[in-house]
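If you are new to this repository, start here. Below is one unmodified record pulled from the training split, so you can see the exact layout before writing a loader.
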Amino acid sequence: MPVLLLALLIALVLLPFVLLVLMPLMLVQRYRVGSARRKARPWMSTLSIVLMAVSAIGFLVGAAITAVWIPNAFAGAAAGIAVGTGLGVLGLLRTRWEATPATLHYTPNRWLVLLVTLMVAARVVYGLWRSWQAAQAGVYGTDLVLAFGIPQSLAVGGTVIGYYIAYASGVRGRIREWEKRPLRAM
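And here is the target side for that same chain:
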């Protein structure tokens, strides 16, 4: 039993280092999957809208609670969602659609997918750098929680959430239009 507990403890300690080492691979995969051609499925876009809306509600509630202690936390989150919504609309305008009699496919704009992926990557790198700075600041008596750039972090998170809500809503609308098309006899 102690060996199993020790192995679990070692795994928990090593997990952050493994994730840090695998982060570049995860970001490359995020970009590859995000920019791939996809079949437009109504249930998938509806599920994306519902899950991202639940995420946005939880995100904004969390930001509102955080704003009690951290100034501008809610404003950063709300601004991020607004910017992300604009990016999502731009993404829909730049998406390539391929309609056939049987299916509808779409390919998201690679540059916007890259932008969102780079935003996530930049936030991870910034978080690591700020963690290091905050640890040093804690030694010198600076308030640790204020040193992390929380409003900016919430703005980036909100941008990603807003982007995916707007994009999934637009995909669902495009699918609905495609389903209403007049069918031709063969």
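Two things worth knowing about this chain: The chain has a mean pLDDT of 86. Residues 2-34 form the longest helix (33 residues).
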